[in-house]
## 1
Amino acid sequence: MDESVDEEIETLLNNAQNAMEQHYSAEEQEEPEEVVKPFRRFLSFISSFVLPVLYGILIALVLTQVVFFHAEVPSGSMENTILTGDRIMGSRLVYWFQTPTYGEIIIFWSEEYNEFMVKRVIGCPGDLVEIREDGVYVNEKRITDDYTQGITTELYTGVNTWIVPENSYFVMGDNRENSADSRYWNSTFVPGDEIYARYMFRYSLGKNGWYLKWNQPIRFWAES
């Protein structure tokens, strides 16, 4: 009789111990899950909202700092090719693989004016550039002026001949009577390493109307 009671008591104690162990084991398993849920929500927020914004910023930086150049033109030195207030887009990648050449419109940094400028390439390294009564000559060959506005004259009295140094360019605005360019600057030439992009197109979203106009090729050399 006593042995039977002892066995029953021992069985009850064992059952109670097993139940308590199962209870605490279940609690231990549930606690990490409660901690994991907020962490998963945080990761979901990062992947759904934060990462797309960061990717967008990264793509924008790559496009504007590596691939394209975008700016608003503040002056009329390139009229009527580019109007005051036009927004322009240039390609930065082009000059990774080639150097500027005659007639191209380039976007470059001017240390003298502490700003970006847009002008047309007239003389390349080693060229002799001259302004004569009948036009502009490069290495004794006259260039066309049908894309320009106004009369081309030297802006420094008596200075009308220049030899372009190595890795430099002689540039002028298409608005020849209203352009601060190589005829006028103290540092006459544009260094090659200050050229950022080649002009691609211009557009206006209301200031000058509504349009998008691509760079039009020109005939650079005049017929002899």
## 2
Amino acid sequence: MNTISLKNASIYQHERCILKNVNFEIEEGEFVYLIGKTGSGKSSLLKTLYADLPAKEGDIMIAGYDLRKIRRRDIPMLRRKIGIVFQDFQLLYDRSVEDNLSFVLDATGWNDKTKISKRIDEVLQQVGLLHKRKVMPHQLSGGEQQRIAVARALLNDPNVILADEPTGNLDPETTNDVMDLLREISTKGKTILMATHNYNLILKYPSRIIKCEDGMVRDSK
């Protein structure tokens, strides 16, 4: 089953076409790298997939949603089915790890405090940071902050995780820890599309590669 499918798609940033004639499919449970130089369109492609940029041409499907036809009011539901991990963590530094995670659950329609607490425990356990539940983000290392960002992406048990340079701000050892975590999550059936320009990472953790280059997308499959 394909969780991501693009057919004859063009990716736009505002009125400018960044990538044209994009064709690829990613199946459930696949781990795929999205590579390319800075400015090659990686982030624009990811932003289109989580409906931050509009899908204007071709067929673009993700997690059962047709992005050409999606209504604005349905975008929050789409994002419940997609976990997003950013390079710069994007945690709220004025509140604890627990409150960062409960904020997301509140915003996506959870209202039972017992279920919220249980789900926070589950995702923190999954990333090995249950003991950091009450800690403030600034008290965490960079690697721990990114693990919390991964936990946040898992909160709504998404079909797909989109990771935009998730190891870009991390040292090599911490990078390996985060990669081990993402690969483990993938083995449990989650589809992961990860943008990176770290070729050492790709050599150490080989997988399928989709490359953005010269306004086109090339698939190693």
## 3
Amino acid sequence: MMNINILSENIKKYRINKKLTQKDLAMLLRVSPQAVSRWECGGSQT
């Protein structure tokens, strides 16, 4: 099982490395920007 903190950090690192905003990443993944924010903060596993 992957540690949620590691997953959160990896999502944020990937996004920043690709010079994407949370909104940009959300559009690419077809989710809300709030979902991306929760993922990066480790606040939701869904």
